[in-house]
Design a protein that fits this description.
It is a single chain. This protein is α+β, with helices and mostly antiparallel strands. It folds into 2 domains: 92 residues, Orthogonal Bundle (Arc Repressor Mutant, subunit A), CATH 1.10.10; 193 residues, 2-Layer Sandwich (Endonuclease, Chain A), CATH 3.30.870. The protein is 49% helix and 15% strand. It has 12 helices and 9 strands. It has a 7-stranded mixed beta sheet with strand order 3-9-8-7-4-5-6, sandwiched between helices. The longest helix is centred in the last third of the chain and has 24 residues. The radius of gyration is 28 Å and the shape is elongated. The chain starts with a helix and ends in a 9-residue tail after the last helix.
């Protein structure tokens, strides 16, 4: 690693530029006085001594208590473990304190997300707070990046439906393969993400194929927009799934049976022998439930007086 790289990575951990230079120098040198470090780095002696004091306070260097005041770098593994521990303690304290702040009132605005990392982090946060249902439309690379988070949601008992553009396995989720997926991936100038959680909040993003930037991305928890996108998106996914199954159907009657009532009273499938197609329809029924948080919020804000998810 070059000196510039070591300085960059240390400043990202909260060191000043000079502190990073001093620590990097001491890592590869025998214990040195501040004067010797200053001479080697070509920095003012007074500034180097201040940097050594700060590094000592951060636990990054230890100083000989003899008359020479020699400074020695703490081994990098020891330093990083301490930084990790301190960070965990600080984030835990921040979580406890900030959790006591009353949540903001509902916000129907549409916000623009500016970076690829911001999009992925928002998606992961949404998946982490899902309570009922996750519906996602993911190009291959976004699927690779978010698969673990979708699977974690499913493992918590969240129903997850994922539309992919090539055959893929997402543990715990129903996977729907877009019948024209490969064509779309080849033709589209980027990689998209559509994520709807609980019918209550959405991310729509188009990531650039350079896998560093994005074309455009938005997030909203508007109950109107979220529910409209959710139901439209769920219907489109159900259509894709039916298209795949219809391709294997042996007659027009098979297709007709697929869109008849899903289950009979008592929860049993009609004795038609078409359980595969009917199961496809049944899998999407929860997407249109009046008990979803997004629908309940919509009704609470704009529904008729007394109208609830159970009416």
């Amino acid at each position: 690693m070059s000196t510039n790289e070591s300085v960059d990575v240390l400043t990202s951990l909260g060191f000043t530029g000079l502190e990073a230079e001093v620590y990097s120098y001491l890592l590869s040198e025998v214990p040195s006085t501040g004067y010797r470090v200053a001479q080697a780095l070509g920095r003012p002696v007074a500034n180097v001594y201040k940097a050594l004091e700060a590094l000592q306070a951060k636990g990054a260097v230890i100083v000989d208590q003899g008359g020479t005041r020699l400074s020695r770098a703490v081994p990098i593994e020891e330093l990083l473990k301490r930084i990790e521990r301190d960070f965990r303690n600080k984030t835990g304290r921040a979580r406890d304190i900030l959790a006591s702040i009353a949540p903001a009132p509902p916000d129907a605005r549409v916000y623009q997300l500016r970076t690829r990392e911001q999009v992925l982090e928002r998606c992961r946060a949404m998946l982490g707070r899902a309570t009922s249902l996750v519906v996602a439309d993911l190009f291959p690379e976004p699927l690779r990046l978010l698969r673990q988070d979708v699977e974690a949601a499913a493992a918590r008992g969240i129903r997850a439906i994922v539309k992919t553009f090539e055959p893929a396995e997402v543990t715990g989720a129903k996977v729907v393969v877009n019948p024209r997926g490969r064509e779309l991936v080849d033709r589209y100038p980027g990689e998209w993400i559509i994520l709807v959680v609980d019918g209550a909040e959405i991310v729509i993003a188009s990531l650039a194929k350079d896998r560093r930037t994005l074309h455009q991305a938005i997030w909203t928890e508007s109950p109107v927009l979220s529910w409209i996108v959710h139901t439209s998106f769920a219907a489109e996914m159900m259509f894709c799934d039916l298209c795949n199954r219809i391709a294997d159907a042996d007659s027009l009657e098979t297709v007709k049976e697929a869109v008849r009532p899903i289950v009979e009273p008592g929860g049993k499938y009609p004795p038609t022998g078409l359980k595969g197609l009917q199961a496809s329809m049944a899998a999407f029924a929860p997407c249109f439930s009046r008990d979803l948080p997004g629908y309940l919020t919509l009704m609470e804000q704009f529904g008729r007086s007394g109208e609830t998810g159970n009416n």
